[in-house]
Design goal:
This protein is mostly beta strands and about 450 residues long. The protein has 3 domains: about 30-180, no CATH class; about 190-315, no CATH class; about 320-440, no CATH class. The chain contains no helices and 32 strands. Strand 7 (about 105-110) and strand 8 form a beta hairpin. The radius of gyration is 22 Å and the shape is globular.
Length: about 450
């Protein structure tokens, strides 16, 4: 079974606020010694050439109980070095291929937006080291050194593949601004998150996400490897349905966040009441109850009673996911954005209240460019699907090869955005035309 990771259950790293685009850069830029306009410095040598970042930044936090830290340096040409580890704090970390998101190591990436090829990335053949010498959560700065080799595949006109490598040495960052996200703690005294699942008490020992943004109110907590969380789309003090239609919100329960094959449940019925939403102090409290169903089997399996969240401190930062299209002449607007990583692909769903969704399939190494839509038979395809539920039955459509295009306009800091248009077809040969598609989705993990 594939595990869907809703935005609520991801580390909501707000790297998006710093993403590059094609607008002219303004303000004071970094000096030759590497001091960026945003404070701190970030320098390196790339294949013998000097790299100086402007306004470097770092984002640390937790997702599903796993600590993460991303350190980013972008120069004036838009080239960037990104180092992502699955831990926080001082220490020495190996940069290689990511096999275990909780292995206290990570990976390094070198991105060239002007290049149509994939970014360079560390793997088992090209590795490196990051040493964090200072992780100051009081003054919110991070310092350290790094060096790594990275590589990418480049396809030639004859279909053959070349491996290109890059050597990044003498990397050093000092007093880079650090943003802490996703811990959900703060001014709330004695935060509480608990619920009984078939009579067994779930006590959220750690709040892993607590954010209010344009996606709504997103809160989740863990007890060991178990996770319970919810999303309310338009939050205020009041009562919300969390039924299978998910028009107002939903609750999710993951039986084991460390296992990609574990059972995931979502609310089939019930209500969630927000009893306090203090915007001045950013505190929220409430109750919830109902039933949970296996996400894929669509059977009601778990009774959810006596759910309580009290004095949960939330942030107001976080990425904004958007998705829209015209489906056979009708407007489509998504409000839920599941992301799945499976078999070397990133699958992004633009979900309309769980009744209708468009799925865009990207290869793991997303690159900017225009791609003729494929049928999804190859891992490197940019392809799509459309699913619609009517009368309890879901009809699946898959993209018709060469019937349209998926355009990746930007892929920076785990935020992918672009446009699409194509035709999809079901097993009976019925076709649907999807046009004017647009998306911006955070695919961080």
């Amino acid at each position: 079974m594939k595990k869907i990771l809703y935005p609520i259950f991801l580390a909501l790293f707000t790297i998006m606020a710093f993403s590059c685009d094609n607008e002219p850069l303004e303000g004071e830029f970094g000096d030759p010694n590497g001091s960026g306009s945003g404070g701190g410095s970030f320098v390196a040598t790339i294949d013998g050439n000097s790299f100086v970042a402007d306004a470097p930044f770092a984002v640390g936090g937790q997702s599903n109980g796993i600590s993460q830290l991303a350190i980013n340096g972008i120069n004036l040409s838009g080239n960037s070095i990104v180092i992502h580890i699955f831990s926080t704090g001082t220490g020495t970390y190996e940069l290689s291929e990511v096999e275990d998101f909780n292995d206290h190591n990570g990976y390094g990436t070198y991105i060239q937006p002007s290049s149509q090829s994939f970014p360079y990335r560390t793997n088992t053949n090209s590795t490196g080291t990051l040493q964090i010498t200072d992780y100051d959560t009081e003054n919110l700065v991070v310092s350290g050194t790094f060096a790594f080799q990275a590589e990418r595949e480049v396809e030639n006109e004859d279909g053959s593949i070349d491996i290109e490598t890059v050597s990044i040495t003498e990397g050093e960052f000092t007093d880079v601004p650090l943003q802490i996200d996703g811990d959900g703690t703060g001014v709330g005294e004695d935060p509480l998150f608990e619920v009984e699942l078939d009579g067994e008490l779930f006590e959220g020992s750690e709040i892993t996400d607590a954010v209010l943004n344009e996606d709504g109110l997103l809160i989740s907590a863990t007890q060991g490897n178990k996770l319970v969380g919810f999303q309310i789309y338009d939050p205020a003090v009041g009562v919300y349905d969390i039924n299978a239609d998910a028009e107002e919100g939903l609750v999710q329960y993951d039986a084991d966040i460390t296992d990609d094959e574990s059972t995931v449940y979502i609310s089939a019925s019930g209500t969630l009441e927000i009893t306090e939403l203090d915007m001045a102090n950013r505190i929220v409290s409430g109750t919830f109850s109902g039933t949970l169903q296996d996400l894929f089997m669509e059977e009601v399996d778990i009774e959810m009673t006596n759910g309580v969240f009290e004095n949960i401190s939330f942030s107001t930062d976080g990425p904004t996911n958007t998705g829209s299209a015209i489906i056979d002449g009708e407007d489509f607007n998504a409000n839920v954005f599941p992301v799945v990583f499976v078999n070397g692909q990133i699958q992004v769903s633009l979900d309309n209240d769980l009744n209708e969704d468009i799925v865009i399939y990207f290869p793991e190494d997303i690159a900017t460019g225009t791609y003729s839509v494929g049928d999804g038979s190859l891992v490197e395809d940019y392809s799509a699907a459309y699913n619609v539920e009517e009368g309890g039955t879901t009809t699946e459509y898959h993209s018709v090869p060469d019937s349209g295009e998926i355009v990746v306009e930007s892929f920076q800091n785990d935020i992918v955005s672009g446009t699409f248009s194509f035709t999809v077809e079901n097993d009976n040969g019925d076709t649907i035309t999807i046009t004017d598609g647009e998306f911006t989705v955070d695919v961080s993990f």
